[in-house]
Amino acid sequence: MSNTKAELMYRTMSPWRLFFVVALPGMISMFAMSIYSIIEGAFIGQKLGEGAFAAVNIAMPLVFINFSLADLIGVGASAPISIALGQKDKKNANNIFTCSVIMIFFTSILMGLLMYFAAVPLVRLMGADDELLDTAVRYLRTVAVFSPLSTIFFAMDNYLRISGFIKTSMVINIGSNVLTIALLFYFLVVRKMDVVGSALATSISMCICSAIAMVPFLMKKTLLSFVRPHFSLPMIKTIASCGSPVFLSNIAGRVTAILMNISLMTLGVKYLGEGGGTTAVAAYAVLMYSGDMCQPLLYGMSDSLSPAIGYNWGAGDPKRVKKIVKCNYIGTAVVSIAATVLLWLFARPLASLFANANDAALLELSSHALGLFGLAYIFRWFSITTQSFLSAIKKPVEATIISVAVALVFPAIVLASLWWMGLDGIWLNMTGTSVLAFVLSLVLVLFVFKEIKQKEKNGGKDHVS
Question: Which distant-in-sequence residues (6+ apart) come within 8 Å of 318 by Cβ?
């Protein structure tokens, strides 16, 4: 797609048509990723067993922390890039793009070194006992080796969408997931490797697809292109500010994961007996993998529309921004209600994908947990959409308030409030968190829409920072 066509699409295409042209490919990309996540979980759960499944769940928060730093820069750069393009300042947009790619690369090297050499104490911090320690450490160290090349994958996906390469982004995402599944089969079934094979499959696939995603930019066929970088403190502050909601959400979420793992180990032993901690952690992993089938659709939809929202905000057209956001809210609400129904009706079949049929206790516990967990999606869509919207128009404070509350503050409050319910309190944690997040997001977004209404009265002439 040419530069002019990409900008015309964001600026003039009708909101609902733009929604289907931009958001649906984003949803398809994320759906493909969720299918991969389900298949990965099924491979680990069915082929390697409950212990390996629990060990990967223990290590996963550290893997996500690694990606969160890349997200801090990638997502943080996306909003000012889109706004700069809306203001016809391509020189600044290209500089931010180039600098962000460099920053991601060097940050990922540092994180890879940290995860590799400090793997043992880090995994213990996640709540791993001696039984799970070795498996979790080997998984984490394998991911760390590939960190410098794999973590830039999601940032390049954002930059492709900003440049109007919507279908290219979708194809690369689908290709990545197909390649990962093929590698999973090769490493776990053909080579009969353990969790290291799973880590290798994901990491190798992401490295290859990151390189492929770079090609359009290197060939200068995109709206964005690499230029001689000019770093400045204001630019770095802007990136950090706009990326802080996602970053703090990821970090806070990993802290919450630690609390959950510790709580699961404690409550599992209390209510399920010896070895119950591992079973409880494995059941929680089933929730996370099953949730991955639905939540990425909401993020994919909202993130795909962010460049269009940011572009029109930068162009001084708040009325169009509001129309696009309205389409986003309706879309995520429909998907969330469908997710709730799906998790309610097919809780046991979904759980059986990850829990071996011979492990009756894990299967029964996971099925029960999924039924309670599914209630969260009745409310979850609103905070996800609102946070993405606020980030797109450079409202980092409001977006950060939502992200930290959803990822840490509300889960901790609900965890303490529902402790008396035992493991059911854990399964209901996301539902309680989502209700509180709905209320908080509604209050914040009403203030923002009041500002947009004022801009509409002024004919959109207010300066957009």
Answer: 312, 452, 455, 456, 460
Residue 11 pLDDT grade (very low, low, confident, very high; cuts 50, 70, 90)? confident
Q: Give the 3-state secondary structure percentages of the chain, helix then strand then coil, rounded to 5.
A: 85, 0, 15
Stretch 406-410: mean pLDDT, rounded? 89
pTM, whole model, 2 decimals? 0.71
Dist CA 143 CA 156 (whole Å)? 19
Distances (CA, A) of 356 to 238, 360, 363: 48, 8, 7
Q: What is the token pair recorded at 359?
A: 């492990």
User: pLDDT digit string (tens) for 220-234?
Assistant: 888 888 999 999 999
CB 265 within 8 A of CB 129: yes
CA atoms within 13 A on the CB side of 369: 31
- How many angstroms separate the CA atoms of 243 and 66, rounded? 14
Q: Rounded to an integer, what distance in angstroms lies between the CA atom of residue 391 and that of residue 339? A: 25
CA distance 264 to 403: 24
Count other Cβ atoms within 10 Å, centred on residue 15.
Answer: 17
118-139 residues labelled b (16+ CB within 10 A) or e (exposed): ebeebbbebbbeeebbebbbbb
Which pair of tokens denotes residue 306?
Answer: 């962010």
- DSSP E strand stretches across 310-401: none
Nearest to 111 by CA among 56, 57, 150: 150
CA distance 3 to 333: 32
pLDDT band (50, 70, 90) for residue 200: very high
Do 438 and 383 meet the contact criterion of CB atoms below 8 Å apart? Answer: yes
What are the residues whose beta carbons fall under 8 Å from the beta carbon of 151, sequence distance 6 or more? 66, 67, 69, 70, 104, 108, 111, 206
